[in-house]
Amino acid sequence: MFRQASRLVSRSITAKSALNRAFSTEVPSTIDSSFVEAWKKVAPNMDPPQTPSSFMKPRPSTASSIPTKLTVNFVLPYASELSGKEVDMVIIPATTGQMGVLPGHVPTIAELKPGIMSVHEGTDIKKYFVSSGFAFLHANSVADIIAVEAVPLENIDASQVQKGLAEFTQKLASATTDLEKAEAQIGVEVHSAMNAALSG
Amino acid sequence: MASSAAVPFWRAAGMTYITYSNICANLVRNCLKEPFKAEALSREKVHFSISKWADGKPEKPILRSDTPGV
């Protein structure tokens, strides 16, 4: 009896899978009714099997009109810097360049490079130097920004940045293995970014 | 067949993203002003105790720590 059940499952799923694939933003309420009927015929006393999508909470629906404010969650491993803060705009240092995020931004996952992240709220601009991380921009104008280390610009010591830059430029010139070259180049990039952040 | 995606230089050198991210974070921490630097470095201290298991019992643990003598 159960061997037949698996045949029914595979038959009904392959016949319908191409047509039934809903977009991930839609609520997964479309349970294949013909499958459920076939199941009940074969095993009337057992509940039809659950699929992973029935355990998922539906995604927060995208508002029909663009919200006026962007909700920012900016977290570090050791602290939650901003939690649910409503702001007008955030500029993040993505690997593809400085990216301005306004409410209603297209959903994006951006990898961040070492650089300045600025949070704009009215006339207030708060700047942080971010070491690296990711930014997840959701369809409902919520931005989750995660970074390993983020410091306000005033906390950076310019002389140490210059020293580090000189040291790593020299290491880059004298590096032999691929790994050494990569480490030295990371050092040069991070220190140049800090330098630019302090002087810009 | 050569890889079709352009990989970042650190990935090409065999480094993972976590290693890259941690190196960047350490470099930033080392360039902080006091007292922020001391706070950051003390926050990032780690302490490991590793023991191999043999016959269902742990052997003598190895300690690894940023604070020597612990």
UniProtKB/TrEMBL annotation, chain A:
* Pfam families according to UniProt: ATP-synt_DE_N
Q: Which domain of life is it from?
A: Eukaryota
Q: Where in the cell is it found?
A: Mitochondrion inner membrane
One function term, GO molecular function aspect:
proton-transporting ATP synthase activity, rotational mechanism
Specify the ATP synthase F1 complex delta/epsilon subunit N-terminal domain's residue ranges. 70-142
Q: Which UniProt keywords apply?
A: ATP synthesis, CF(1), Hydrogen ion transport, Ion transport, Membrane, Mitochondrion, Mitochondrion inner membrane, Transit peptide, Transport
Which biological process annotations from GO are given for this protein?
A: proton motive force-driven ATP synthesis
In which broad location class does this protein mainly occur, judging by the first location in its UniProt entry? mitochondrion
Name a single GO cellular component: mitochondrial inner membrane
Which Gene3D superfamilies is this protein grouped with?
A: ATP synthase delta/epsilon subunit, C-terminal domain (1.20.5.440), F0F1 ATP synthase delta/epsilon subunit, N-terminal (2.60.15.10)
What quaternary structure, including any partners, is listed in this protein's UniProt entry?
F-type ATPases have 2 components, CF(1) - the catalytic core - and CF(0) - the membrane proton channel. CF(1) has five subunits: alpha(3), beta(3), gamma(1), delta(1), epsilon(1). CF(0) has three main subunits: a, b and c.
- Family that this chain belongs to: Belongs to the ATPase epsilon chain family.
* Role summary: Mitochondrial membrane ATP synthase (F(1)F(0) ATP synthase or Complex V) produces ATP from ADP in the presence of a proton gradient across the membrane which is generated by electron transport complexes of the respiratory chain. F-type ATPases consist of two structural domains, F(1) - containing the extramembraneous catalytic core, and F(0) - containing the membrane proton channel, linked together by a central stalk and a peripheral stalk. During catalysis, ATP turnover in the catalytic domain of F(1) is coupled via a rotary mechanism of the central stalk subunits to proton translocation.
| Entry protein name | ATP synthase subunit delta', mitochondrial
UniProtKB/TrEMBL annotation, chain B:
Q: Which GO terms describe its cellular component?
A: mitochondrial inner membrane; proton-transporting ATP synthase complex
For this UniProt entry, what is the primary localization, expressed as one broad class? mitochondrion
Q: Which UniProt keywords apply?
A: ATP synthesis, CF(1), Hydrogen ion transport, Ion transport, Membrane, Mitochondrion, Mitochondrion inner membrane, Transport
Q: Which GO terms describe its molecular function?
A: proton-transporting ATP synthase activity, rotational mechanism
What is stated as this protein's family in its record? Belongs to the eukaryotic ATPase epsilon family.
Instruction: Briefly state the protein's biological role.
Output: Mitochondrial membrane ATP synthase (F(1)F(0) ATP synthase or Complex V) produces ATP from ADP in the presence of a proton gradient across the membrane which is generated by electron transport complexes of the respiratory chain. F-type ATPases consist of two structural domains, F(1) - containing the extramembraneous catalytic core, and F(0) - containing the membrane proton channel, linked together by a central stalk and a peripheral stalk. During catalysis, ATP synthesis in the catalytic domain of F(1) is coupled via a rotary mechanism of the central stalk subunits to proton translocation.
Any idea what this protein is called?
Answer: ATP synthase subunit epsilon, mitochondrial
